[in-house]
């Protein structure tokens, strides 16, 4: 399997230490962020590129442009600035997340946003990684709707899906689109008390045998369908961020998944 690691897995690590951790795990692909930790807001993109090249790493993506499907206010400017940063840092793609506050967004507005974002990505040689969020309050919950909008926007050559195992489970999705998927995000939920409808980012941990999200079944389906892209770990739980040895925990989770799939 082609594992990768998102900086959210160990946000206390500096960029250089995060890259070093990836190398220690034998990984060649990483994701950086503009929230936790805010690499985009604190590190010059040329320094990011140099550090990645020195470590022998490819930056899959920057997480994330939000809310990409509400193309108003300062979003167009923020989108261009983030795309500029991605290009200068050597990142291959931008993750794009929809509005997630209970407000509905019309399908036509989603299509319009994808159309507006398309030239920004094309001009910089970037891929747009559209990530539906499965939360009940999300304005874009399913990959099928995302694909319909991408096709309506004529964006099949620019956009790919993020298959997030957490959000796939929360949305109750059963469909997989491996041929349209560019990236898989992996995280698990082990808390036996929380209902699926109440699961939040704070519940997302590294995948182990107690996982409730059927990560292994999802990954097997993607592997069997021929998906060859990266499986990137993206746990948000505070207990993961507080680990004194995140590399060991990551190695354990990678080994568990690899031998189980």
From TrEMBL:
Protein name: TIM barrel protein
Xylose isomerase-like TIM barrel domain: residues covered: 21-258
């Amino acid at each position: 399997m082609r594992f990768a690691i998102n900086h959210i897995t160990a946000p206390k690590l500096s960029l250089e230490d995060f890259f070093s951790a990836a190398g220690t795990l034998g990984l060649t692909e990483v994701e950086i962020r503009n929230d936790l930790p805010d690499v985009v807001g604190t590190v010059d993109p040329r320094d990011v590129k140099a550090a990645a090249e020195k470590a022998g790493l490819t930056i899959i993506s920057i997480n994330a442009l939000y809310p990409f499907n509400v193309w108003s206010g300062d979003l167009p400017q923020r989108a261009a600035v983030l795309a500029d940063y991605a290009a200068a840092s050597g990142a291959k793609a931008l993750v794009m997340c929809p509005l997630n506050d209970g407000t509905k967004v019309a399908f036509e507005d989603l299509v319009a946003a994808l159309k507006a974002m398309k030239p920004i990505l094309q001009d910089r040689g970037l891929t747009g990684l559209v990530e539906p969020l499965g939360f009940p309050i999300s304005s874009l919950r399913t990959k099928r709707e995302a694909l319909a909008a991408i096709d309506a926007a004529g964006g099949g050559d620019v956009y790919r899906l993020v298959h997030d195992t957490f959000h796939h489970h929360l949305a109750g999705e059963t469909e997989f689109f491996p041929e349209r998927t560019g990236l898989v995000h992996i995280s698990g939920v082990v808390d036996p008390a929380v209902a699926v409808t109440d699961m939040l980012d704070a519940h997302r941990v590294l995948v182990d045998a107690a996982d409730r999200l059927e990560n292994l079944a999802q990954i097997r389906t993607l592997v069997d369908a021929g998906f060859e892209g990266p499986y990137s770990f993206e746990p948000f739980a505070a207990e993961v961020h507080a680990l004194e040895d995140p590399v060991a925990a990551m190695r354990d989770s990678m080994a568990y998944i690899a031998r189980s799939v």
